[in-house]
Amino acid sequence: MKRPARSLVSIALLRRLAFANIVANAAIVVTGGAVRLTASGLGCPTWPRCTDESYTATAEMGMHGAIEFGNRLLTFVLVLIAGATLLAALAYRPRRRGAVPLALAVVLGIVAQAVIGGITVRTQLHPSIVGIHFVVSMLLLLVAYALWRRVSEPDGRKVPVVPPALRSLTWLTVVVSAAVIVVGVAVTGSGPHAGDADAVRNGLDPQTISQVHADLVFLLVGLTVGLWLALRAVGAPARAVRAALTLLLVELGQGVIGFVQYFTNLPALLVGLHMLGSCLVWLATLAVLWSTNERHPTDTPTQPTPLPTEAGHPTPVPA
Question: Which one in 11, 131, 247, 262 has a CA-CA gap of 20 to 30 Å to 1?
């Protein structure tokens, strides 16, 4: 009988590296926001060089050059973390199904982000490109989160643990959460924090687009409240109920920051916290989505898990 190959890395290390990708990609969103909020978006006025003569910032460029170049350097940290995760996924035995493609997608996504960042500088911080830059960051968080969950779960078949109606409600919540982020990008593109005094704005009326954003936030909070109550009513697994409650609390905190920053003329510190909050809302949304399914080890019986019903009692599973 053939002995299984010995793994070169532990599952604990692989999980830590996968989680580090989530933290790093959220952190660079915040530092990228700091670049914009300090008007340092063109601190390095070209790309891939910082100036036409130098790849690094010079003393003459002052604080703005140092901030923008420092943010560029963080990209290499992300690449190192993502590369280490990919190597760990390749070295782990038995390989987790789907982990290697996800790890590779994180690496390629970070490289793509670097290119988009360069285009952002080349287009003088055009709000459409800046918006794409942020949306791609959210997609990277999605892939990084999926990777972390993939290496934290067994390789068995994924089965639902909530009724179909609640799975549909969960997906609707995810879609609205994504819409809140996209419209929030449009709000940012109409506001004062452009990253440079001469950068153009998207031409949208700030009050109108902010109202649309607020309406979507109210819808998202309402959907989350409904989802939380419904999960409790049907006796869903505790982790699903807990994930929905966590999402609701994060949304409320983010909403408070959003309203305060709007009525205090968008102070830079609150705008930065709001950007961090966007990452947290998105990650909490993904946690709810993942909590509606579970994977069983491949060596366990494949009897489906009874789903809760409207009354909270398990649905009988036919033999």
Answer: 11
